[in-house]
């Protein structure tokens, strides 16, 4: 499966290159118009819960995984990209964050589950700025928090025996100095 | 017998159902736990190293995750009760040792930063243990940048110097080294840092005459070296008065020798590839520079003598803020220094950009040699210090000579215009003895920084406006954020004689 995916991606990439060449010839002498046309363009994305959403090209451009395909096809309105790992709720949140130019105040309004879902989505869609932004937001949340808080945040099951954990806390004692147990 | 079509439909329905269930389960399961380690490491890298280390007790899969972080920052800087420091430092050292022991030595460490403040005598044993394990890490792990900061070590202990483990100076991978040690230390024998590109020792106490050369010899690719010899503690005493440095790779060298233990100190620099040299000296140094490819030379403070061995044919810019009169024994001594200062100036013959202050002009005034011609000189900036203890007309004569020998000068810049303080209160301002009329006529740009709105400053602008036939730009700025007042703007604008001259006031205002 993975192999097939890769090869089709390779074909797409090749097509992209050809397309660029072709388009490059086309827009010679009229670059301003080409840029203008692209402005209001939208791309249809189908989310994991089956919702089809029209997303502005400027936002889609940050999704490197989709960007790979955009040049490869004449993105007429009929073309639809499935993003099976991202729900419509999360996609809406992502659009808000990108439009809000990554304001940390916006991140503060997100629930812990939303933060995590967005991180997973950013990783999947290969959105580098969003990924770093959300990772920073998560780091801010778990900073100076107790081990229990962080376990709860990430949904981690503690699989240490009591003895193992005690031993680890002893050798890493420095790391637990001055941490609030909240 | 089942209908094949029915079977197919049922199969398809089942698959859809399974898929839907899968998806639901996927949503419920915390997907963060199936994130690639690189993603989790990215989050950890945004935390303090200490906090990242605390994640090791989350679960077995997190146990050693933080050990993969490329940057290791071990900072001991507690604000709590000082009497608790020895206990805390003990667990700090245990932790540091665990990190080095359990980290995969094949995975490179981008940055290793170790900082210890709040040292007390009772921490000594752990301190040595820490230094040993840090040194072992530098030499056996693939460390690229290493920074060691032992803040206030000496203030609370009798020890005036420490011995750094020699392993700290043996690494195949190290490219950058920063030592911030407020304590005497010496470069060990057998330094071997074949990939080191830059080193900073701030501050540094020169323990032996050949310490620095020993370091250079062990760093065959070193391009940048900066160190600052200054007072660390009164307890550290050395009698070193000579510093010789020779390297075939060094491109940038900065030396501050801000300490007078001895008289008649000397510095010798020899490097074929040296492009930039900065010397800040206090005390009477004799300086020999043999760097035929030098592009930039800055010297400030005092010298007895400054010898340029092969000249500076490629010199592009220079800053001369140096006095030659320090510890002069008698008048003959002053005269001999003035000839040497003049010779030094000739070595700068190709310079394009010169920043110069007045102290050197005292000896240049006495020199019997003619001012050299600076054919390439494009810009001169007059910088502090200014000499109040020397007759003004003599300084002016040197300036006049300098300007007259820069036939292609286009930019004249003043950094704090104290030079013409004398004119503050007198109505009679005569700039002709300072600025040759031919130079004024050719000048394209006049810049004044740190404008104070004094009478002399307006007069200066007026003089260049009235006589500057080629003048295109006059730029006047105050200190940092301060703005020129409306009154001052008006006054400056009223001085404009030709419309073509553009006036820049402050950051954005162009008139």
Furnish the topology, listing elements before pairings:
The complex is a heterodimer of chains A (182) and B (511).
Chain A: H1 2-26, H2 31-39, E1 42-46, E2 52-56, H3 57-60, H4 64-70, E3 80-82, H5 88-99, H6 104-108, H7 112-125, H8 128-142, H9 147-154, H10 162-171
Parallel strand pairs in A: 1-3
Antiparallel strand pairs in A: 1-2
Helix pairs in contact in A: 5-7, 7-8
Chain B: H1 4-28, H2 37-45, H3 49-54, E1 71-76, H4 85-102, E2 109-116, H5 124-140, E3 143-150, E4 176-181, E5 198-204, H6 211-217, E6 224-230, E7 242-247, E8 252-258, E9 265-271, E10 276-290, E11 296-308, E12 317-323, H7 331-347, E13 353-356, H8 359-366, E14 379-382, H9 392-404, E15 411-415, H10 437-442, E16 445-449, H11 455-467, E17 473-476, H12 486-494, E18 502-505, E19 509-510
Parallel strand pairs in B: 1-2, 2-3, 3-4, 4-5, 5-6, 6-8, 7-9, 8-10, 9-10, 10-11, 11-12, 12-13, 13-14, 14-15, 15-16, 16-17, 17-18
Antiparallel strand pairs in B: 18-19
Helix pairs in contact in B: 4-5, 7-8, 8-9
Q: How would you sum up this structure, described in words?
A:
By secondary structure, chain A is mostly helical. Chain A has a domain at 42-142: 2-Layer Sandwich (Potassium Channel Kv1.1, Chain A). Helix content of chain A is 60%, strand content 7%. Chain A has helices at 2-26, 31-39, 57-60, 64-70, 88-99, 104-108, 112-125, 128-142, 147-154, 162-171, and strands at residues 42-46, 52-56, 80-82. A three-stranded mixed β-sheet of chain A has the order 2-1-3. The longest helix of chain B is centred in the N-terminal third of the chain and has 25 residues, at 4-28. Chain B folds into three domains: 70-221, no CATH class; 241-408, no CATH class; 410-511. Chain B has helices spanning 4-28, 37-45, 49-54, 85-102, 124-140, 211-217, 331-347, 359-366, 392-404, 437-442, 455-467, 486-494; strands at residues 71-76, 109-116, 143-150, 176-181, 198-204, 224-230, 242-247, 252-258, 265-271, 276-290, 296-308, 317-323, 353-356, 379-382, 411-415, 445-449, 473-476, 502-505, 509-510. Chain B has a 19-stranded mixed β-sheet that branches. Residues 20-30 of chain B have low confidence and may be disordered. The A-B interface holds A 48, 87, 116-117, 119-120, 123, 131-132, 135-136, 138-139, 142-144, 147, 150-151, 154-160, 165, 168-169, 171-177, 179 and B 23, 27, 30-33, 35-36, 39, 42-43, 46-48, 50-51, 53-60, 62-63, 88, 91-92, 94-96, 98. Chain A: Keywords: Kinase, Transferase, Ubl conjugation pathway. Chain A: Residues 41-97 form the SKP1 component POZ domain. Chain A: It comes from Vigna unguiculata. Chain A: Pfam families: Skp1 (PF01466), Skp1_POZ (PF03931).
């Amino acid at each position: 499966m993975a192999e097939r995916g890769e090869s089709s991606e390779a074909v797409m990439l090749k097509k992209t290159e050809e397309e660029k060449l072709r388009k490059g010839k086309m827009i010679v002498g009229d670059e301003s118009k080409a840029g203008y046309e692209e402005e209001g363009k939208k791309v249809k994305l189908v989310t994991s819960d089956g919702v089809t959403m029209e997303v502005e090209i400027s936002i889609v451009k940050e999704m490197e995984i989709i960007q790979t395909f955009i040049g490869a096809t004449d993105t007429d309105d009929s073309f639809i990209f499935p993003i099976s790992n991202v729900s419509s709720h999360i996609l809406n949140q992502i659009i808000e964050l990108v439009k809000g130019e990554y304001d940390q105040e916006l991140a503060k309004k997100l629930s812990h589950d939303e933060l995590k879902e967005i991180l997973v989505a950013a990783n999947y869609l290969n959105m580098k700025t969003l990924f770093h932004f959300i990772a920073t937001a998560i780091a801010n949340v778990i900073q100076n928090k107790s081990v229990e808080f962080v376990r709860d945040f990430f949904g981690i099951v503690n699989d240490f025996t009591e003895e193992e954990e005690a031993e680890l806390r002893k050798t890493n004692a420095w790391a637990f100095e001055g941490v609030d147990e909240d | 017998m089942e209908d094949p079509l029915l079977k197919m439909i049922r199969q398809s329905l089942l698959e859809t159902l399974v898929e839907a269930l899968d998806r639901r389960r996927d949503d419920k399961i915390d997907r963060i736990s199936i994130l690639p380690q690189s993603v989790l490491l990215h989050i950890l890298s945004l935390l303090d190293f200490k906090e990242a280390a605390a994640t090791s007790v989350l679960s077995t899969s997190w146990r050693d995750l933080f050990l993969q972080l490329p940057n290791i920052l071990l900072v001991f800087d507690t604000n709590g009760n000082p009497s608790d420091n020895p206990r805390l430092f003990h667990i700090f050292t245990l932790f540091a040792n665990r990190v080095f022991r359990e980290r995969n030595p094949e995975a490179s460490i981008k940055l290793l930063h170790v900082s210890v403040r709040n040292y007390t005598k009772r921490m000594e044993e752990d301190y040595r243990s820490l230094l040993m394990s840090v040194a072992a890490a530098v030499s056996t792990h693939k460390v690229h940048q290493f920074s060691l900061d032992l803040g206030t070590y000496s203030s609370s202990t009798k020890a005036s110097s420490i011995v750094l483990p020699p392993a700290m100076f043996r690494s195949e991978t190290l490219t950058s080294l920063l030592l911030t040690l407020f304590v005497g230390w010496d470069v060990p024998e057998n330094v071997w840092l074949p990939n080191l590109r830059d080193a900073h020792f701030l501050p540094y106490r020169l323990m032996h005459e050949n310490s620095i050369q020993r370091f250079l010899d062990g760093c065959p690719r070193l391009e940048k070296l900066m160190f600052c010899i200054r007072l660390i503690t009164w307890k550290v005493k050395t009698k070193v008065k000579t510093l010789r440095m020779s390297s075939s790779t060094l491109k940038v060298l900065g030396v501050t020798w801000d300490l007078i233990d001895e008289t008649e100190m000397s510095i010798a620099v020899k490097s074929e590839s040296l492009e930039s040299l900065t010397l800040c000296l206090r005390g009477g140094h004799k300086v020999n520079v043999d760097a035929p490819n030098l592009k930039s030379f800055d010297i400030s403070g005092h010298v007895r003598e400054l010898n340029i061995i092969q000249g500076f044919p490629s010199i592009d810019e220079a800053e001369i803020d140096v006095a030659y009169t320090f510890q002069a024994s008698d008048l003959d001594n002053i005269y001999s220094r003035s000839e040497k200062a003049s010779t030094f100036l000739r070595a700068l013959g190709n310079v394009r950009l010169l920043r110069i202050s007045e102290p050197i002009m005292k000896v240049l005034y006495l020199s019997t040699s003619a001012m050299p011609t600076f054919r390439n000189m494009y810009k001169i900036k007059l910088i502090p210090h200014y000499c109040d203890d020397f007759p003004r007309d003599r300084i002016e004569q040197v300036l006049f000579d300098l300007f007259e020998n820069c036939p292609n000068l286009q930019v004249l810049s003043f950094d704090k215009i104290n030079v013409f303080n004398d004119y503050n209160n007198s109505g009679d301002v005569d700039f002709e003895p300072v600025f040759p009329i031919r130079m004024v006529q050719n000048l394209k740009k006049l810049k004044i920084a740190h404008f104070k709105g004094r009478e002399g400053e307006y007069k200066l602008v007026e003089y260049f406006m009235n006589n500057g036939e080629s003048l295109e730009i006059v730029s006047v700025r105050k200190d940092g954020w301060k703005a020129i007042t409306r009154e001052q703007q008006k006054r400056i604008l009223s001085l404009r004689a030709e419309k073509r001259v553009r006036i820049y006031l402050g950051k954005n205002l162009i008139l």
